[in-house]
Write a structure and sequence with these properties.
Blueprint (H helix, E strand, L loop, with lengths): L3 H18 L7 H14 L3 H29 L3 H4 L5 H10 L3 H13 L9 H10 L4 H13 L3 H13 L9 H15 L3 H12 L13 H12 L4 H6 L8 H13 L3 H26 L8 H9 L2 H9 L2 H14 L3 H14 L3 H14 L1
Helix pairs in contact: 1-3, 2-3, 3-8, 8-9, 8-10, 9-10, 10-11, 11-14, 14-15, 15-16, 15-18, 18-19, 19-20
Length: about 375
C-alpha cells in the first residue's frame, strides 16, 4: 500500500514520455491500452495497470486534440462557412472540396452520435468534440486501483473526474457504477452527506420515487395500498417496478435513514426496494419457466429457493435483507399486522436459513 505513491510518480513520468512519443494515427489504440490495463488490473498488477490506463488517457487526449484542430481548420474557409450551421450542408461542402479526412472525422462521430444529438448544428458538434478528449472509463479504473490500495482521497478524485466526463462514456449506463463507487468512497471517508447525495442521484432517474420532498403519484398509491391491507399480498401482486440497477441505492439509503432515525424516508426507500426485489425475482422465474405467473409471495419464495442461479443472485444482492428491512419499517411505522404477515411468510418460506431465523425471532417479539 505504501509503495503506490512511488509507483504513481513513475507512472506519471512514463505517461508523460509516452505522450511525447506517441502517434495519433490509430483511433483504436487507446481502447487497446484500456483493455490491456484491465488484464493487468485483474491480475492485481496495479502499477502496470496504472501505466496502461494513463497511456490510454494521454493517447485519447492527443488524438482528439489533433482531430479537433484539423476539423476546426477545415471549417474555416469562406466556402465552408457560407454553408451555414446545418451539419448536412457543411458536410456536403466538405465532400465537394474533397476534404475526405474531415468527412472521416465526422463519420466516426456519427457512428455513436448522429447529427440530431447536436440539434444538427456544426458549432454544437465542434464544441462537444473539443471537450471529448477525456477518457472516463480510464479515470474510473484508476480510481478503482487507488481504492483497492487504500488511497481513498486519490480514488475519489478520479471517480469524480469520471463522473464529470460521464457524457463521453461509451456505455452510458456505466455512470451508475461511477455513482455507486463515489457513494462508497464517501462512506469510507465518513462524508455521509455526500454519500446520500450520490445515492439520491440514482433515484433522480427513477420516476416512481419522485423527489426527496415529494412522492410520486405511484408511490403514494403504493403506500395507500400497504396501509389499508392486512397482508402484503395485494401490494406485491399489484405493483411492479423494473429498476434493479437502483436496488442497491434503495438498500443503502434505507440503512442510512434508519441510522439517522429518519423513518418516514426509510419507509419509502424500503418499500420501493422490496417492490423492485419482487419484480426481479418474478421476472427471472418467468425467463427460466415461461409458464410461471406470480400468484403469491409465498409461492415466489418457494420457487426462488428451487433456482440455484437465482439464489446466488439473492445472496450477492442481499435480497432477503430487503424484505427484512421492509418488515422492520412497516412495524416502525405502526403497521404491525402487515409487518407480522411479512415476517411470518419469510420465517416459513425464505430460502435463506439466516434470514428465516431472523424473521422468526422478530415475529416472536411482536406477538
Amino acid at each position: 500500500m505504501k509503495k503506490l505513491p512511488v509507483v504513481s510518480f513513475v507512472v506519471f513520468l512514463s505517461v508523460a514520455l509516452y505522450a511525447q512519443q506517441s502517434s495519433v494515427s490509430s483511433a483504436e489504440y487507446p481502447w487497446h491500452l484500456l483493455e490491456q490495463g484491465k488484464v493487468a488490473y485483474e491480475a492485481r498488477e496495479f502499477g502496470e495497470a496504472l501505466l496502461l490506463f494513463g497511456q490510454a488517457r494521454e493517447m485519447r487526449k492527443t488524438q482528439i486534440a489533433a482531430q479537433y484542430d484539423y476539423l476546426f481548420a477545415a471549417l474555416k474557409p469562406q466556402q465552408v462557412r457560407a454553408a451555414g450551421d446545418l451539419i448536412a450542408d457543411v458536410y456536403r461542402v466538405l465532400e465537394k472540396r474533397q476534404d475526405y479526412e474531415a468527412c472521416a472525422i465526422l463519420d466516426k462521430i456519427f457512428l455513436t452520435h448522429p447529427p440530431a444529438y447536436f440539434n444538427k448544428s456544426i458549432s454544437a458538434l465542434l464544441d462537444w468534440f473539443r471537450r471529448s478528449g477525456v477518457y472516463p472509463e480510464c479515470d474510473y479504473l484508476i480510481g478503482k486501483v487507488y481504492e483497492l490500495e487504500g488511497e481513498l482521497s486519490q480514488s475519489r478524485r478520479f471517480y469524480q473526474e469520471a463522473w464529470e466526463a460521464r457524457e463521453f462514456l461509451y456505455i452510458p449506463d456505466m455512470r451508475f457504477e461511477i455513482i455507486y463507487s463515489l457513494a462508497q468512497i464517501s462512506g469510507l471517508l465518513k462524508q455521509y452527506d455526500d454519500q446520500e447525495k450520490y445515492l439520491l442521484l440514482i433515484l433522480t432517474e427513477d420516476p416512481v420515487y419522485g423527489t426527496t420532498n415529494a412522492e410520486s403519484a405511484t408511490l403514494r398509491a403504493m403506500i395507500h395500498t400497504i396501509k389499508h391491507e392486512q397482508t402484503v399480498e395485494k401490494f406485491f401482486s399489484l405493483y411492479r417496478h423494473h429498476n434493479d440497477i437502483a436496488l442497491r441505492a434503495y438498500i443503502e439509503l434505507t440503512d442510512m435513514y434508519v441510522r439517522a432515525e429518519e423513518y418516514d424516508r426509510a419507509f419509502r426507500t424500503a418499500l420501493l426496494g422490496a417492490d423492485i426485489a419482487v419484480t426481479y425475482l418474478s421476472d427471472t422465474l418467468k425467463k427460466v419457466d415461461f409458464t410461471y405467473t406470480y400468484s403469491t409471495f409465498t409461492d415466489l419464495l418457494l420457487k426462488s429457493g428451487a433456482n440455484n442461479e437465482l439464489l446466488q443472485w439473492t445472496e450477492s444482492k442481499k435480497i432477503w435483507n430487503v424484505f427484512i428491512q421492509f418488515a422492520d419499517l412497516l412495524y416502525r411505522q405502526g403497521f404491525v399486522v402487515q409487518a407480522g404477515d411479512l415476517y411470518y411468510k419469510l420465517a416459513e418460506n425464505c430460502p435463506s436459513f439466516t434470514y428465516a431465523r431472523e424473521a422468526s425471532y422478530k415475529l416472536s417479539q411482536i406477538f
